[in-house]
Design a protein that fits this description.
Strand content: 5-15%
CATH class of the largest domain: Alpha Beta
Radius of gyration: 27 Å
Structural class: alpha/beta
Strand order of the largest sheet: 1-2-3-4-5
CATH topology of the largest domain: Trna Endonuclease, Chain: A, domain 1
Oligomer: single chain
Distance between the termini: 98 Å
Number of strands: 5
Number of helices: 11
């Protein structure tokens, strides 16, 4: 067999070209399929979720960078962290849309809410009175407060998804009975009816604070009394029926005595019931 010339021809044979092509394909596939691993070497501080999950929900030019969201999320887990987050963001003089976006993304980073749920919630509730302040309350280190306010957000979001107009979340209100202003957890509007909701998220085994529940029902009654032209439907909702049936029966009687609708279930189930109440009444 004749000897090949001593030049670079062997490197240009089809076999070598195929090897080089395979190496290139492997390199490109690895780069495309593992962007998070590649980014992790650049931004090791992102530990809870990938950078793509922290992309801004808004297209505003002043949106907070993902790395800053990670740092703020970590700060929020510390005692007094939510106040510090408020100071840091407040000093930037950002528009409301960017602040709403920042708090929702902090909640994503902390694992309070999924990116999928956050996308829908932000789209439906952005610029709703009380949305930003309520989201800011779910990024702290108190699991109880987080659960309660997240429940309110989910009820409001489900309402918006089901054709209700969300008038406000955590609407401040002076009922003239409590030592300070109270609030209506969620205010909705549909079919010419205003729906005022006091929402509770307790485990079935948690003892019912009946005095507090009575006071909140009284606030609902006072709200409707001060807004006679609004055709207010008062709703007291609870996520889980208490295991103590005696307490549940007593709560039903307190609601009936005040003309307040007592409902139970998940946020979605509650809105289905409220939708029926608005239609029937």
């Amino acid at each position: 067999m004749p000897k090949e010339p001593e030049d670079f021809t062997p490197f240009m044979t089809s076999s070598w070209l195929q090897i080089l092509l395979n190496i290139s394909v492997i390199f490109v596939a690895t780069s495309v399929s593992a962007p998070v691993q590649a980014l992790a070497s650049v931004a090791p501080k992102v530990v809870s979720v990938g950078i793509s999950l922290l992309a801004p929900l808004t297209h505003h030019a002043k949106s907070i960078a993902a790395d800053d969201i990670v740092r703020l999320a970590s700060l929020g887990q510390k005692t007094g962290g939510t106040k510090e987050i408020g100071k840091i963001l407040g000093a930037k003089n950002l528009p409301n849309e960017v602040l709403e976006d920042a708090y929702v993304r902090i909640a994503i980073q902390q694992g309070r809410i999924s990116r999928t749920e956050a996308d829908g919630m932000f789209r439906r509730l952005r610029n709703t009175p009380g949305f930003r302040s309520t989201v800011s309350k779910i990024v702290g280190n108190s699991e109880i407060k987080t659960a309660g306010h997240l429940n309110e957000l989910r009820i409001a979001d489900s309402a918006a998804e089901n054709g209700f107009q969300v008038k406000g979340i955590g609407v401040r209100f002076d009922d003239g009975m409590k030592s300070a202003q109270t609030d209506i957890d969620i205010l909705l509007f549909k079919n010419d009816r205003v729906v005022a909701i006091e929402a509770k998220d307790y485990l079935p085994t948690t003892p019912i604070p009946l005095d507090k529940f009575r006071a909140d029902m009284d606030s609902l009654v006072e709200y409707s009394r001060k807004n006679p032209s609004s055709k207010v439907l008062n709703v007291f909702s609870i996520t889980n029926r208490p295991a103590d049936m005696a307490s549940w029966n007593l709560l039903q009687k307190e609601a009936e005595r005040r003309g307040v609708e007592l409902i139970e279930g998940t946020p979605n189930q509650q809105i289905v019931l409220i939708k029926q109440l608005v239609t029937d009444k």
